[in-house]
Structure prediction request, 156 residues.
Amino acid sequence: MGYNVTDIINKAVAIAIKRRTINETIGQENPDNLSIKIISNVLIKELDKTIEYYETLLSKISDVEFEEIDFSIYDKMSSLINDFNKRIDIEIKINNVREYLRFSLELEKSIYSLMMDIQGRFVKNTSDIHSKTYKILSNIIDNKVKHIEMLEKITE
Prediction:
């Protein structure tokens, strides 16, 4: 059995869980800053919705037969995701709400870029843009755009 879009979604869930942990840590490291704690809780709830979105998506597509992703392409995608996870596995010091929101926005944009890169690597020819995998990745990317737009409105 080869790799398919469910493997990518599972990796996206892992990223969301890691981001949730980062937000929990930021909230805990700022116990005296009520604004940061509130923003932390809001972002955690948004990440819970994202995780639920991915899990619902996985449930809906569990019986669907997907195109296999070529091993060399999947290996590169997996490597990109692992590198991304290492990059966000750094100590973050947040001093105020504006910094926190900017950090969250930049992180969301980075995930968007990662997903765009993954989707782009999946396309080998023009027929690939009509595949189930491409369409699901497009939906995930559209979901990221909504998160970015929401954070951009808040940070203005």
Notes: Helices lie at 5-29, 34-60, 71-87, 97-122, 132-155. Residues 34-60 form the longest helix (27 residues). The two ends are 47 Å apart (CA to CA). The chain has five helices and no strands.
